Amino acid sequence: MADVVSVNDRFDIDPGQPLPDFDSPTAKAYACRDGNNKADFVALVCEPKYPLRVEAINALKGFPNHSLMRVQDHGVVNWTLTGRRMPVLVVDRPRGGRVFKSEDDTIEPFTDEQLTRGFLTPLVASLREMSQRGVTHRNIRPDNLFYSDPNRRSVMLGECISCPAGLFQPDKYESLENAMADRTARGDGSVLDDLFSVGATVLSLVTGRMLPEDPDPQRAIFDRINLGSYACLVGGTRLQMNMVELLRGLLTDEPRERWTIRDVELWLGGRRLTPKQVKLPQKAARPLMVGGGSYENVRSVAHAIGRNWNTAAELVRGQDFDNWLRRSLGNENVVEAVNKVTGGANGIQSAPKEEDARLITRVAIGLDPAAPMRHKGFSTHIDGVGPTLALNFNDDATRQKVAAFIGSRSVGPWMSVQTRSKQDLLGLFSKFDKLPTLLNSTGPGYGIERVLYELNEDIHCMSSMIEHLYVTDPEEVIPALEAVAQQGRRPPIPMDRHLAAFLGARSPDIDDRLLRPLGNSSDTRPAIDALNVLRLLARIQTLSRNGPMPGLSHWFVELMKPAVNAFHNLKARAAVENSVMKASDSGQLGEILKIFDDQRAQQRDQQGYQRAQQEFAQCAVQIAQMNLDLQNKDSLAAEVGEQAAAVVSGVVGSVGTTAIVILYLV
Amino acid sequence: MAASSANAASMKVIVITIVGGLMLFTLPTVLLLGIGMMPTFAAMAIDRRREKYTTLCVGCMNFVGVLPFVAQLWTEGHSYERAFAIMADPFAWLTMLGAAGLGWCIYLIAPGIVSMGIAMRIEQRIGRLRRRQRELVEEWGPGVAGALDDSEKREAKAAGDAKQES
Fold first, then answer.
1. Which residue in the set A619, A643, A665 is minimally distant from B133, CB to CB?
2. ipTM of the prediction
3. A164: which of A54, A423, A602, A648 lies 20 to 30 Å off by Cα?
């Protein structure tokens, strides 16, 4: 056994035993054992760039059902194979293999018995439990199914927590609303989305092959809108009547008519009904031309407008669209929704030209409130914005489209036309409401980086300094920076935009007072940047109480040298140096901060220095004047010398005269 | 104005009359003084300064040199014979002219001595100021000299450049 890696001192991973059969698209599987009872598990060593669904992981703790790869534990480990810290999920190990080894794999079609007892019955139990825990799976597809027993009688769901919901779901296994969204922006969805995936998976199991990818995904979406997903997915496949009933129930595009868990349970219990006809979208009296295409129903028009956002504004402002909406469509609810989000015909006409993209977004929301929001080609559900940004943060185009979406403030209008419980959405709305302000602030701790961490509450800090250490909690920041400080090559300063934004978003004690000065480039005092960073990190260290950090302290001592040297008084400077060294040895950033935060001492030093400079200059002026006097001393002495000579002569003469008078005349 | 200048003129006339009268009655003394004080008259003639320091210097000493012989004249009979006898005495000339020479010496040496004194005093003060500057630099570092130090460096550099060019 190679050097085992321990997860939370409970599970031992053997990096020498990869289990490729259990790999996830974003994680490599390795053999893992419980340290106590030596039971076998699978350790999924996850690719750090993919955000984990931590909320789902926590909600699924103690999951009782065995038809799901349950998460036993999760943590972050030092993974020697990559030389960095990696997130690890320890999950149940299925006893059988994968049902579909790849997308191209074909299997023996499932019989009714296999499907109902081996797949649907345990699956429904799992979905019910997940639904009660408020979690969706959103990763149900044939190649994420495993046989739970060596005899391959029962099927279990693969893991659903190693990447954002629906990220690797082919469009055909996603409900129409999710398929219309960008793959990274599908969001967690609801149990109804899972049930649609179950329907598409059942179709694959009864046919023995996965549903083929469409060569033109957008054409396929319009076909699903116009013809219904059931017709598009089933096509000419011959099915038994009982399967038709199940699949029509699960693959219907109208969520309110889609089968619920209860319906599936009744079906499994033997209830049989005449299959319902799939309800197709209401056709307008005449089609509407959008971007060169002709569209007959409101959902396809909304989707087409969203895709042709850069040219659709002219259409939306025109009389033809208004006529189509009010007369040809004949759906008062849609007219009312469009009026609500756009302000009606007047609102559309009065919208400034430069806000065309926003106008189109709102019109599309009004036309199809259940669809993803579409802004400048970005099609997203409300909880899909964060994962999109997290997955492609280094891509300029993604950052721009997310920033544009947030700037469009489309969430408010979208919420106003939702039929979902407002309580669910209020949290998200309040979060999106404050994002434009954060986004428009340009300093460290704000901007698109702050948006990233506000929208993804569980992702790790992506600062280039500590990304490899997979820091997910502000308390881990100081030890991570200590590790950076201990290494040979240090960055210029232990702070960057990502780290500031991470701390601002994650720590309630880090507010504007600490973040704003980080971007105050107008302050030219020496080492002021380092001082502002020190102030912030000292606060974090105080809050997290994770012991002395001598490496980081010495780093700050180096950075603060210019501030020490800024003390003009040499005695004061020596005293400060002495204090700093003592504080540095303590490893407490707060101790160093106390020394440099003494504004009065700095002011006194500055004032004293100015006085000394003045005095020095006065001395120099006097010396120069005296040197001049020295040069001119002869001319000066001539005047004074003559006076002195006159005085001396006068005195001598007076004394002499007096003496003579006394001698001769008295 | 006209009245005051008339008063001054009349006062001048009165003084000249009195002095002239006195001189008329003391002609041997006037003779002795006139001849003995000739160095003073010479100094007066070449003294261009308004304050007449040279005249004062030479005159005072010259008068001390002449005064013993005036006293001798007065005590030994105030007569032309005695006055001529004194003037015929080389010692008298030596005394009168020597005293005048002493006056000239004082006048010529004093500026040099004063100059030395001034230089000493200035150098002492410069020394004190430089000590204070050194104390300031020791307390506050070389930066306290500010632009002054820079200018010194610039001058040194300019001097170096000039040396190289030459």
1. A619
2. 0.77
3. A423
